[in-house]
Amino acid sequence: MKKPHICEILDKQELTENTFDMVVSFPQSALPGQFIHVLCGEGVLLRRPMSICDAGRGWLRFIFDVRGEGTKRLAQHKIGDSLDILGPLGTGFNIEKKGEDTPIVLGGGIGIFPLLMLAKSLGKNTEAILGFRTKSLIIMEDEFNEACAHTHITTDDGSYGICGLVTDCLTNRISKGDVSSVYACGPMPMMKAVKKITEASGIYCELSLEQRMGCGIGACAVCVCKSNGEYLKVCQNGPVFDAREVDFDD
Questions:
Q1: SS3 of residue 21 by DSSP
Q2: Hey, which bits of 81-124 come out as E strands?
Q3: Residue ranges per structural domain of the chain
Q4: What is the pLDDT of residues 17-66, one digit of tens each?
Q5: Are 226 and 194 in contact (CB under 8 A)?
Q6: Staple partner for 166: which of 12, 119, 131, 194, CB 3.0–4.6 Å?
Q7: Considering only CA atoms, which of 208, 212, 216, 211 is closest in space to residue 37?
Q8: Is the pTM of this model over 0.85?
Q9: CATH 3.40.50.80: does it fit domain 95-209?
Q10: CATH topology for 5-89?
Q11: d(CA 46, CA 5)
Q12: Angle between helices 166-175 and 188-201 (to 10 degrees)
């Protein structure tokens, strides 16, 4: 069983209102798509799962939205403070499946966070499709521009980039040819649509599932998902799955 690490906060930034970017010291290497389980502060019993945004020798980066008491406490920490972090956990993206043509990383909302490290690993011919509700919530565009050959930004209200859904943008991009694989993370309706689109096009696809977790190590079975008629634990068997293995309820 993995043991937690006591990690120093090396950097902290507020990217938008209620969205925070943290870099911490970390002694282990991590794979794109893996996550960490963080103790958020005094009085918060359960750890919170955080996607790994990027990592290097001796450090790890994660981004989170403040959505409840746990993440509120986490956001109150300062540079130099220590965090109790368990990880890295879960399975990462299978980069070997990217194919010979253009891999696409596709994310909506907080689903974009684990895709930056993946985009860097896939290579410069990668394209990104990133969806936000409105212009004021857009983050990390410059970083994806640097990592990818092209970054497509969509907004629900049309205030920036392409007006519409990331799935519409994906369909349009696939219609132009040379897409060899899709790696996606985001809300469940988006993931269902991505699975349907890629299956219809015969394109290999992996999905990183966003699921509420308890223990993070497969003991509590809070985060189960249905796969080929069976139930798998997202924290242990995932969070990344071959899209063909995920059974979404209609």
A1: strand
A2: 82-89, 102-108
A3: 5-89, 95-209
A4: 899 999 999 999 999 999 999 999 877 778 899 999 999 999 999 999 99
A5: no
A6: 131
A7: 216
A8: yes
A9: yes
A10: Elongation Factor Tu (Ef-tu); domain 3 (2.40.30)
A11: 16
A12: 10
